[in-house]
Amino acid sequence: MKHVADTAAHVLELERVALEAWGQGDSEPYLAITADDISYFDPFLNERLDGKDSLRKWYTAFRELRLVFDEIYEPRVQVIGDAAILTMQFISHSSSGTVRWNCTEVYEQRGEQWLIVHTHWSPTKPPVRAAGRHNKN
Length: 137
Description:
The chain is built from 3 helices and 6 strands; from the N terminus they run ααββαββββ. The protein is an alpha+beta fold. It has helices at residues 2-22, 28-32, 52-59, and strands at 34-41, 49-50, 69-80, 83-94, 97-110, 113-123. The protein has a single domain, classed as Nuclear Transport Factor 2, Chain: A, CATH 3.10.450.50. The protein has a 6-stranded mixed β-sheet.
């Protein structure tokens, strides 16, 4: 049971370090823990991103990002063999306001390293469409 607790703490620490750097416009710590074959969903994109090179290009749009502070709420790490699923709520605070997110990160142990193989970000309270109306985009 200690192995599971150690793995969960390690994965959460990887995420905290990467998010802290991300909030200062530095995506390198995230890229360092990202698998080459990652799949990535983001609410600002119409399609899934596949591969680390695509993600690296997407991250360049956020180089000017600066968060005053951020918070991880209710993190949960489920360890299943060589995989760890991190689910959390993330709240970022910047000069332009507060944004609340739901996030799922799927890590896989590859050799001695834990790498993110799938990411999914979504707003905690997305806009709600009226009943009977569908987005035709």
